[in-house]
Design goal:
By secondary structure, the chain is α+β, with helices and mostly antiparallel strands. The protein contains nine helices and twelve strands. A four-stranded antiparallel beta sheet has the order 6-5-7-8. The protein is elongated and about 80 Å long.
């Protein structure tokens, strides 16, 4: 339990800290003044001043923050020149500083996936049977638990993905499965049944199914090359899944009850930590991608909202008026509070049920 608690604090706190590190790094790259860079929130425990920046360790270890000179529109800051003020910089530089937070979250996910590719190799889910649904073609054909599919109609099957693709491309024609069972090969004749089901994003799709579920056995193979390409592809694919998931919620294909908050995140990290370090790192990478995309939403108070403001400033050659910014910020805070309330409500509803 203690290990899981430490994992939750380090994982979630580390993600927010790495996000803030992105803002800090790009601000310093442009020569902007940084008043404070904190690991953690709340009262200061320890720290040091280097140049004009206070680096400190704070009491609550859930993330961190960066305080830029002139970030709230101040035209003067004690100890900082006009050129160092965030508010005095061109809109494109301010946009880069804001966008650096989400970018660093994508970068962290890529680094983790790269490490996992080098440490584990490429994981392949084996085509082993972990469950057989009643009254399905698989049950009628005589499938048993732990059967491993070797081929379908002469096509060699080395992964669960390959097996699913082969079944879906077959339509409703009869298929000859060769499976390995207790060291022996067994031939089974199966005719898939076409069912209408909802996919991950709540969309109704028609697919041929035989009625088996995977056994969860994974085999790792050495990767070709450095693994960077595989990590980049995995990061891109996960980002695509997250974005499509958000769009499905907006389109009400996925119910809002599926939205989770801090309790669900903590539970996911806890479950991953119980499985092992590799599973934990994989979950951290996935949450990092979610954090990046959430922050890029064009909602005022989020990074995406600020990017939108700076983008409009670039287009119209002048910043939005303080009045419009204040109205937008109030609207953004209201939206964010409603989403947080919904997420926390869903968390408690799941706990109670």
């Amino acid at each position: 339990m203690l290990i899981s608690a430490i994992a939750i604090v380090v994982a979630l706190g580390g993600l927010i800290f790495f996000h803030e590190l992105g803002h800090f790094a790009v601000a310093r790259l442009f020569g902007m003044g940084v008043k404070a860079f904190s690991l953690g929130f709340g009262p200061r425990l320890a720290g040091t001043v280097s140049g004009k920046t206070e680096y400190k360790l704070s009491l609550i270890p859930l993330g961190g923050y960066v305080q830029l000179a002139g970030e709230d529109g101040e035209e003067e800051e004690d100890g900082f020149s006009d050129e160092e003020l965030f508010s005095s910089r061109p809109a494109w530089q301010r946009m880069c500083v804001v966008a650096a937070g989400p970018f660093f979250n994508f970068l962290l996910a890529f680094i983790i996936f790269w490490f996992l590719a080098l440490a584990q190799g490429q994981g392949i889910i084996l085509p082993t049977v972990g469950g057989i649904m009643a009254d399905t073609p698989a049950a009628s054909a005589g499938f048993r638990l732990d059967d491993r599919v070797l081929s379908i109609d002469g096509t060699s099957i080395n992964s669960w993905t390959k097996m699913v693709t082969t079944i879906r491309e077959s339509g409703e024609k009869s298929l000859e499965f060769i499976v390995e069972r207790d060291g022996q090969t067994v031939t089974l004749s199966v005719t898939p049944k076409v069912n209408t089901v909802k996919n991950l994003f709540g969309e109704e799709v028609t697919v041929p199914m035989v009625g088996i579920s995977q056994g969860g056995k994974v085999e790792y193979h050495p990767i070709d090359g450095t693994g960077a390409g595989l990590a980049l592809e995995h990061t891109w694919n996960m980002a695509h899944v997250v974005i499509k998931g958000f769009l499905s919620i907006i389109e009400r294909l996925i119910p809002v009850e599926s939205i989770g908050g801090p309790i669900m995140l903590a539970q996911m990290v806890h479950d991953s930590a119980q499985t092992g370090i590799y599973a934990l790192l994989n979950m951290v990478a996935i949450i990092s991608i979610n954090l990046a995309i959430i922050n890029l939403l064009p909602i005022p108070v989020l990074d995406g909202g600020h990017i939108l403001f700076f983008g409009l400033e670039l287009i119209f050659r002048r910043p939005l008026s303080d009045r419009w910014k204040a109205l937008a910020m109030r609207f953004g805070i209201m939206i964010l509070l409603l989403l947080m309330a919904l997420a926390i409500f869903n968390d408690f509803r799941r706990l109670l049920s």
